[in-house]
Amino acid sequence: MDNNKKISVICQCLNVLHVSGYRSLFDDHRSRKLFTGSAIELHVIAQLLQLPSYDVISEQLQAQPALRKAVGLDSISGAQLSRKTKTLCTQSLQQLFYDLVAQIHTRTKLGKGVSKSIGRLHLVDATDISMPHYLGRWARCGSRKTAVRLHVRLIVADPYTTFPDRIIGTTANVQESNLTLELTVDRKATYVMDRGYEKRTDFEQLVADEIRFVTRVRDCLQLFPVIGPVRELPASDSVRILQDADVTMRKSTTFLRLVEFEDLKGRRYRVVTNRWDLTALEIAMIYKNRWLIELFFKWVKQHLKMVKLCSFEQEAVWNHVFLSLIAYAVSLLVKLRLQTPKSQWEVLKLLRSYFYHSWQQFLAALNRVPSRKSRGRQKTDRVKLVEENQRVILR
Known about the structure:
Strands 1, 2, 3, 4, 5, 6, 7, 8, 9 and 10 form a 10-stranded mixed beta sheet that branches. The chain is built from 14 helices and 10 strands. The two termini are 42 Å apart. The longest helix has 25 residues, at 314-338. By secondary structure, the chain is of the alpha+beta class. The radius of gyration is 23 Å and the shape is globular. It has helices at 9-17, 36-49, 54-63, 65-71, 78-87, 90-107, 180-183, 200-208, 280-288, 291-303, 314-338, 344-353, 359-366, 381-394; strands at residues 121-130, 140-141, 145-158, 161-171, 190-193, 212-216, 223-225, 239-249, 256-263, 268-273.
């Protein structure tokens, strides 16, 4: 990111990508105007500004001289953009996303996760993107569902910083548990998963590989208690611990730890783990942090254009998904480099408002002292999680 404050916000965002002027040897062989680098920049800008269609992108290029100068294009039609999206190399976009993730890793390497005792959490889950039944025949799953599925590993660097570092795209007929072992490889982290990843053979393999995990299991799953130490059930204002015992599964000799708890609304959870070094309250709090990946899915679907597909051909869909993730990584890198206490959504809103203004004006708006000192009574789910974590740690 350039330190020149007179440079525009749009140029600062594009400098994070490092694709200006890039031409692909194969994809741009016969291109005369719209090359791969400019196409990627236009699509990322469309994601950041939430432009709904190729025609709107084309009109934005016509209306904004700063945009034309930044991407090196005088004009482009919506049809040309559509054709280029289908020919972009998905593997190249995926690699660009992982390059940005590597930069995020570098800037968050000092993050201690949820707490010092718990460490970093890697949340594993999947989300679906639906498509029209007839236009997306290649992704049809049964007679009623047509969708692609993103299997995501989300890193919790600290309570306020989360980012995906591994994405596996499949059609919706691929079950979550089929990819558990591909997404759980780091022995230093604790993996948090929901009931879709309940599989006896995977639990045995994770224990054998010394991979730490906390996974919710169904109420109907049979677990058999084994002789072990009797643990005291701690008291808490946020959760009520109902059970803390060592168990095994049917046809298995692998020991697991079962923690059953109930939240303030009376909802009951059963989680199994191989972490005996933490208290039952900390295990319950680890699983409650799994909600952060649901917030991530909501963030990219609501604030970017991930689910508003402009084309339903296979190559275009996957390119659209990774361009959305690239835009997410760009906005997060801008936030991390500025070291601002504002949330990523607050930074993105300011980016949209000052996108064609100077970087100095954007920084002035970012550091402006609010006129109201009180934030009111509203609390986000993430703030509630942080407060509950702090209460558990203090105990």
